[in-house]
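Q: What structure does this chain adopt?
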Amino acid sequence: MTISIFLLSLKGGIGKSKFAYKLSKLLSRNFLSVLLIDNDSLHTLSTMLGHYGNGLLDGCEISSSLKKIDDFYLLKLRDNPISVLYDERYDRLKSVLSKKWDFIVIDNYIGINESNAFVKNVYEASERKIGIFLTDYLTLDNTFNYMRIWSNLDHKFVILINENNSYNYSSNQLLYAIL
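A:
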């Protein structure tokens, strides 16, 4: 069974990329097959993990956009912030998503919604869908409104990040509680 985990936020710099990496590392440590997708238009996660090549949506082949990092795979979707999903790139994405992944973890750009073609493709490849909404005190009310428009998720969680953007929780305990 493939479980997709969407990391979502209305604000940049909240910690989605860091959380996505830690979650993927934790899941893969338990001998699970994990695909981490960098769907951030700024490709922060790919840069952080040393994936400097072009992304799948830039016309890059799967072999160049999919890299093994630690014990999981990282799929870089874009290098160009305005790259879109169309034509043969749908087939390439579906080819990657159709592999037997236990988990697909997605670091998304801010404000993405369920009508997005990429999200729809991940939904089709997943038996269970989880949304983790990261927020701070300033955007908490808006985050709850944003969470409500994600109607096709099986489970939704909100994580409140404190002002200095540090994680004061035990990462493993929090992630296991979510899963």
